[in-house]
Prior knowledge:
Low-confidence stretches of chain A: none
Helix content of chain A: over 70%
Oligomer: homohexamer
CATH architecture of the largest domain in chain A: Up-down Bundle
Order of helices and strands of chain A: HHHHHHH
Largest interface: A-B, 30 and 30 residues
CATH class of the largest domain in chain A: Mainly Alpha
CATH topology of the largest domain in chain A: AhpD-like
Amino acid sequence: MNGRFTRGLETIKQYVTKEEAAQMIEADALADVAPNLRKMIIEFAYGDVYSRPGLDAKKRALIVITAVITQGAAPQTKTHIKRGLHAGLTQTEIVEALLQLVPYIGFPRVQNALTSFSRCPNTC
Amino acid sequence: MNGRFTRGLETIKQYVTKEEAAQMIEADALADVAPNLRKMIIEFAYGDVYSRPGLDAKKRALIVITAVITQGAAPQTKTHIKRGLHAGLTQTEIVEALLQLVPYIGFPRVQNALTSFSRCPNTC
Amino acid sequence: MNGRFTRGLETIKQYVTKEEAAQMIEADALADVAPNLRKMIIEFAYGDVYSRPGLDAKKRALIVITAVITQGAAPQTKTHIKRGLHAGLTQTEIVEALLQLVPYIGFPRVQNALTSFSRCPNTC
Amino acid sequence: MNGRFTRGLETIKQYVTKEEAAQMIEADALADVAPNLRKMIIEFAYGDVYSRPGLDAKKRALIVITAVITQGAAPQTKTHIKRGLHAGLTQTEIVEALLQLVPYIGFPRVQNALTSFSRCPNTC
Amino acid sequence: MNGRFTRGLETIKQYVTKEEAAQMIEADALADVAPNLRKMIIEFAYGDVYSRPGLDAKKRALIVITAVITQGAAPQTKTHIKRGLHAGLTQTEIVEALLQLVPYIGFPRVQNALTSFSRCPNTC
Amino acid sequence: MNGRFTRGLETIKQYVTKEEAAQMIEADALADVAPNLRKMIIEFAYGDVYSRPGLDAKKRALIVITAVITQGAAPQTKTHIKRGLHAGLTQTEIVEALLQLVPYIGFPRVQNALTSFSRCPNTC
């Protein structure tokens, strides 16, 4: 385990519970087919990028939620709303962020995101 | 002028200078072809959405910057980075927001946004 | 209930049955999490935009069907094909519209839309 | 010249002037690098698809305009608005079509399309 | 059956088993609603494009896999990974191709593609 | 300079001339605003990803060209076609790759890519 991986694992704890962090490594669903993907996510996304100074965890979560909704990436929308709540965003802030997107990306993707959110409002 | 238009004009002053706000109305480049578009932006985007409580102007600007970069909407990237700076985001926060997008949308759209930003870092 | 909401509800009846229009308000699936979204759709999309003069309901439905298929927005594709049929588009016109998209957006999104359409060809 | 090519050339005359149709073949800007692309567009897009029965030229033009704006394809937006005007769409219908897109794809892409349209409102 | 259709059917056998090729025609799920779509895919995609010289079947499959993943077209991702394996791409080449996309389109769409791939690694 | 950066610089030489590799570092246009972006591209894209075994440089270039065209990322299309030629792809292979995309992403993005390619067919 190199420094980037360790820093990534440390950083990810701002966004997921300890159990989820452990499970990511031990129960990686893609471990057989692409063992490098999870490692790349932890080292690059969390170790190199999320761990940078200059922006707090709540703002980083808000940016990532916005990006995956704008792309229409359904499974990631649920995952990152959950991580945003863990990082300290309130339900109100998330709903407001989604409504703020309407004039820029239109109703369909916002509605799909709110539908996915409405099924796990508190803890997912 | 109805209540939504007035509230929209009031709200937009958090994101643009007074001169720009005045110019939006008086010098609308699309006035001949689509006089309703500017009105719709002020009434709906600013009067109905940006003016909602629950999220401050800096977070709203960050969300909109993220959305237009993820869409690859070049002219709007420049406009909304400028509005974000006016709303109080620092240069560092904007650059960090852009780097935070790399693992989610890839380098090309982030690089295009940073190129456009590098040409107007302080005041555009 | 303001004028935009009333006009929106009136306009939406060109695209859905009376029962569906009533249900939209009484049984809004997102009512708990985002009570404002449905209201925004009726006031802005239907009250401000669909209700404008200059384009008939069938052409408006055709435009919206095209937009959601081009975005790859699956749940909305089904919804808006259904609304287009209610507004008076024929099955043939909808299938032709989808085939017309092939040279511009490629087969995958057209095929996904036709698959969703083939499961509810008459009345959904 | 096979039947599809001939039918494509015949069909394209509903969307462009005779001079433009002739120029497409004689002055193909991509003739050196990809001589097959123009042929493919005329044979497949115009010969196979646009020439199908069941939808008139104005509706086909409206669908294509919507698709290229939703994709954010700037050069094609201008081209296909021009072809739509040639096919008989009025300026009002095109502006209304663009405004109808706002609730589904957001302001940025509509605004870019209207900007490009405002520079060639009558004949381009 | 014209020449393009025959050539398309011949070409598609590089990407699917004989049974699948036969089934495409005999058991077209969209036959009732859009009998022309399947014909268009075989004639245009396979008869006109895939059958061109200058690029082998493995490279063509790699290009199509990349395009549908970048678009986020979920059902087509599975279909074209399977066709790529049939054309001779190895599992390793496909996983490497997907990882190569991360810096250009981000983790979400790559992760969704790998998840779909992990469920049918050998033969689907 | 760490190992990833060194490996990235080594790998990038398969895709650009020595002069361009040197210029990337010495004349980074974004050096003032976002000094980390170029470093991230060399370390992550080239040092971690392009340098992996299992796929040759020509196939990696083909994948990246496809991804940026499918996204509609204009400046990157030119850059990566040029890098593909440097890696050993022939002009014919690149034109064929672009035509192969037509049935999957439609004519507009392919036409824009070919237009940009036609302006620099040999060496850019």
